[in-house]
Amino acid sequence: MCEHIANELARRRRVEILYEGKVCVRCGETNLDMIRSYSKIDLHHVIGEVNDPDFVVFLCKSCHAWAHARFKALGIVDLSPKPKRNLLEVITLLLRAIGHTLKDWGERLSEYADKLADLIESLDELDESWRELPEAQL
Length: 138
Prior knowledge:
Structural class: mainly alpha
Low-confidence stretches: none
Distance between the termini: 66 Å
Oligomer: single chain
Largest sheet: 2 strands, antiparallel
Mean pLDDT: 78
Radius of gyration: 22 Å
Shape: flat
């Protein structure tokens, strides 16, 4: 077997093991249909891999790009320690990153709660309309 093919098969298997069944925590996108054997889900290091390699969440590629673009717009471009930055500056950036991430998730959760409440209300209305039908029509 060609080394290139063996490497590609090994890479595909790693992707399947790492990302199989994962869901984007922001939009709910699933990874059921991988794109040409590439994951639709990425690992996002919330405060930068250098600062904490284990503080990760799964985001779809769209939400991952959005998160990085938002951080950049907020001035949270690079979360890694730099010689020019002191520890307090790094901590400030990290807290901003966590805060904006949690704020976004809170807004998303509120949207999901509103949709669920609407669904419950429509199901309750449907249930009431069934109760009003004469028994002969049931």
